[in-house]
Amino acid sequence: MDVNDRVAIHEVMEQQTISIAKAGIHTTLNARCSVLAAANPVLGRFDSKKSVQYNVNLPDTLLTRFDLVFITLDTNVNDYDISNHVLKMHADDNRNNNEDIVSSELFKRFINHAKKIRPALTDDSALLISKSYSKLREDSKGFVIPITPRVLETLIRLSTAYAKLRLSETVDECDVDEALKLFNFTKNNSIFRVKRSKNIIVKENDTFNKENIENVQTEKFTGITEARKDSILEIIWNWKDKNSHEDSCSIKKLAERNKIDIEEIRTVVDELASQDFIMVDEDNIYFLD
Known about the structure:
Keywords: ATP-binding, DNA-binding, Nucleotide-binding. Pfam families: MCM, MCM_lid. This is MCM3. By secondary structure, this protein is mainly α. Helix content is about 50%, strand content about 10%. Strands 5-7-6 form a three-stranded antiparallel sheet. A two-stranded antiparallel ribbon has the order 1-2. The chain starts with a helix and ends with a strand.
């Protein structure tokens, strides 16, 4: 994005105004609108070892002005889901045509009515937002997108939007819960850390065939056997099953509780993250389902 464009969009997203100084005209126009933007990686491919800011070449000051940031990656899992969806649509051509489908006209009227509602925060919902924001600030170490006071405004806006969808005059705790789920989903999908790597040194006079070299690289990189890796995987998934209400797990606490070397756990979770089973930052494991 051009520097001048960045300056202009900063004003729009922060002040909700546009300043014009052209052809002898000096004025300020209101620009109260929602901003939906999309960006491609600067190098044509998203590098999960780099931050979001690096990949899209946008600074924190601009990214934090967006309430939600979604990262859409072209993975094998997505390809499988898309192909299944397309095949299901073709295979389901003879489905019952008497399904209850909301007409576009009714849907438009619903949206127009919802936009006119001005839900008010209740004391309980305001307290829940305050506590949730404080917890996010405490846990914000290592996040790619900083948790700033703008996040507090984001939670209020999202909670209010959910209340409007319910056509409610008040923002209740259930609305805050849904807003937090959505925000946490985008937050976790915006968290990456650089994968640790170790250099493999093979002397020129050493004689290795291709298979032996691959085995040496695997052993040097992981530093653990397959049996050890399976044991750590079982510990991770057992924790997830026993704490299904939690969406993240502390790597340090998991290592201390099970008396495992923390670097061994990091090696395993890095491998899981590379296969899109989980996401990790410096301190936590984030489960995607």
